[in-house]
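mind reviewing both lines:
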Amino acid sequence: MLEKHKHISFPPKTDFPVFQVDDEKCIGCGRCVNSCPIQLLMLNSDKKARPNERYDHFRCICCQNCAASCPNDAITIQGDYRVREGFWKNDNLFEGGKTFPDPLYFRNGAKYEDYEDQLTETEKVIYNRRSIRLYKKKKVPKELVHRVIEAGRFAPSAGNNQPWKFVAITNPDVIEEIDQICKKRVKLFPQMLMPRPWVDKQVPGDKNAKPKKWQKTLHYLLSRKTPGDVDQRVLGGINTISSDPEYRTFFRAPALIILAKDVRGIGSPDLDLGICGQNMVLAAHSLGLGTCWVSLIKGLTWDHGYVRKVLGLEYPFKILTSLTLGYPAGQVDNIVARERQRVNWIE
């Protein structure tokens, strides 16, 4: 029982993925640096990709977007995120590490490209879809934005209550304004829960820094109510946004779609909007566009006047999440390895 209450604030016995680069293949393009959602990477003096050695000890989320966006296959990620004890313990929840897609049950006996032609177009989009953070400046035609939203409109929902409303923004000034508001709102979060040396972007973080006692207490209290919001990987991501003035929450994407829910929705409107949003994501990628989920848009909900006057959202609608949308700058969609299936078969 006590195990569930240990090491809530930055668990010490944690294994993190390790970033590795083949210097002979690395061309110093910086795509991995810009595609990392947690900004763990940099180019050294020799223009080779390296971890920046600042926050990577508790920030890597093992998404492998760095490897997917590398044009020369120079990057590999070794290991997985594992917590061995305490509240966040997860090393007992996975079996055998990550594998590439295996929909035809080859059990890793064949390479994806060898059987890709046997898959449906929907399956191909699902397996190749990556979160896109590198966008061209090219505008997305309104017709395509409409097409993406239509895919969401026809998603299933509990009781067919369709609890969604969309705000489609293609005005770059408005997107930038929302970006700055959201950054301002989330800024206090890492300051309340993280050691000060980890928060200052300009000064390399001290890996041995510890949160203060009051921060640990606050961390514990929040973990009782919304544990997913205080996971150390989440805190690292929020810190990236709030402490770097050059970082953009919405990656300078040419379009932003906000998804709002009817708070009176039947069953679980959050789930319904997740289904709706994934319809939109798959449609967008099938059209050659890229997307990225950005739920930090919820920082905007504190500014009720802005939400009402600029976005046109009023009760019963409440902002839940958002999707960036645009043309990817170079190849990013690609297959990556994921944790093995966790399935209890009952036959």
In short: The mean pLDDT is 90. Residues 180-243 form one domain.
